[in-house]
Amino acid sequence: MDxxxxxxxxxxxxxxxxxxxxxxxxxQIAAALLSPHPLELSNLPLVSDVENMLxxxxxxxxSVTRNAHTAVIDASAMVSCEVSYxxxxxxxxxxxxxxxxxxxxxxxxxxxxxxxxxxxxxxDMHLKALEMLGADIGIEGGLIVARASxxxxxxxxxxxxxxxxxxxxxxMAATAARGETEILNAAREPExxxxxxxxxxxxxxxxxxxxxxxxxxxxxxxxxxxxxVIPDRIEAGTYAVAAAITGGALELVNARMENLAAVIxxxxxxxxxxxxxxxxxxxxxxxxxxxxxxTTEPYPGFPTDLxxxxxxxxxxxxxxxxxxxxxxxNRFMHxxxxxxxGADITLQGTTAVVRGGKPLKGAQVMATDLRAxxxxxxxxxxxxxxxxxxxxxxxxxxxxxxxRKLAQCGATIERLQT
Length: 418
What we know:
It is built from 14 helices and 24 strands. By secondary structure, it is an alpha/beta fold. The chain has 2 domains: 203 residues, Enolpyruvate transferase domain (UDP-n-acetylglucosamine1-carboxyvinyl-transferase, Chain, Alpha-beta prism), CATH 3.65.10.10; 207 residues, UDP-n-acetylglucosamine1-carboxyvinyl-transferase, Chain (Alpha-beta prism), CATH 3.65.10.10. The strands form 6 sheets. Strands 22-23-1-24 form a 4-stranded mixed sheet. It starts with a strand and ends with a strand. Its EC number is 2.5.1.7.
């Protein structure tokens, strides 16, 4: 498995181009299967999760033509079929195919997704949303089997919590239902709004995406469409922390400040400067890092996908920071690895007590999931000496050419192939 070798201590300077959002691209690839007309997606990130999702779309019978950051997905000739667990076990997002397949063919058989290192991500909310729309759901031999022999019917879907995946599943399925669907307590993430924009370009009629209440008029007349995926706010937040943790300055090209309000507020509390530029935003730090208290929350609150990165940053602040995780129960697996670099962190239930100000020092560490991996990269950039990060395939799932982008900004980083 490949490793990263990083020698820390260099302030990063320059510009980083933020790629398209992985978490926006994945449901849009699934949405392409709703329509018998082609969908062109541009600004796709070159990451393994997107590549895997496109491969699954092909296994379901869609034709995929890929050119750099663009893919044309043509599902005109596909038929409903089953894709094996061996194919989908690497990523949970394949459950997003369930709604489009059910909506289009009246039946869908999708393997239950594999486990996730950061804790349980049950699909029950996806299934309950589809049941509200009139589907019969069962589990047969590790498969989710969904049927709607009389078609899906528009209704009021009330989500027990603002789940991004369940909101996206309900929204996609409702585009083909008879009548109007109202989704209440919907997730408000920018990726949900971007999926709605993609579906509307394909012919759907969706209002309210990005708020807690979404209205979908069913019976969509599909048409060929093109859509540009939004920039990745989590990648932007990660590079913002890279600038802050090294005491450098980076321009984040394509980053959208309006999608990063909670992140920018947290950075400014810690003594980091953030301001808009003609191409995105600029993040810099020249003074001492201050401590912070953070709690992860659904959007527009502080994102769980940036919790690990900010924990690395808090390790370099002089004093005690409190970081509370409310979204995933096992999302502190990076803590023992940060300790190998010299971090002083105590876990108290869902709260991490970070006693910063002690110098981090290079060591051998092991990545456990996507965001934990990049947390270790950030800590290594600030550490004294050399750090080796193992199992960096996790990084490839969600960060496009991370080592190249960092190296272009002055980091001493090398990918070691084994």
